[in-house]
Sequence to fold (215 residues):
Amino acid sequence: MNIEQALLSFTLAAGLLTITPGLDTALVLRTAAVEGGKQAFLAGVGICSGCLLWGAAASFGLSALLAVSGFAYNVLRIVGAVYLGYLGIKLFIRAFASTSSNNAAGPVWKEDRRTASSLWLKRGLLTNFLNPKIGVFYLSFLPQFIPAGVQVWSFSMLLALIHATEGLLWFLLLANTTKLLSSWLRQRRVVAALDSAMGAIFIAFGLKLAFDKAH
Fold:
């Protein structure tokens, strides 16, 4: 296929992957519902930055190391699983604190302004970049859309940039849509339910990653 066909095919395929429900979408939705659209968008920027990093790694062949080296894959896998478990436990603790409040039916507390906005950027980035499956996926997915005669590194980065841009647009849409229900979503009982569900999702993904075997 030529360059135009490759770009069109990749844009459609990456778009379908972007809107498929997963950990990234769940993280942005929960953040938008509880913390606000700005923090959700920053988390989305972090996630998409992780995509660009994995795209660069795949272009340089670093992701190939994860595919052939069990040790390298396992190190990143365990670190990622521990991080997801840590986030899940924190959400469960927050959910318990919310339901234990004397005003459990009232609005949720405002986020402590001492919590830097960069925290959400880092959470999105680490959630994405500490998952070695994404690196292996990029290594196997991107080459299918690289036509003959192009510079592999630059074209791979272009594809990763397209994927990241689609992700940003999708996360922006989610954040803005969530605003319509913001007054209800920020009730303490609703927040507690969201945090419990999100904590369970993080822990489940962490366990799945922890018990996954390197190939």
Observations:
- Residues 63 and 137 are 9 Å apart (CA to CA).
- Residues 102-114 have pLDDT under 50 and may be disordered.
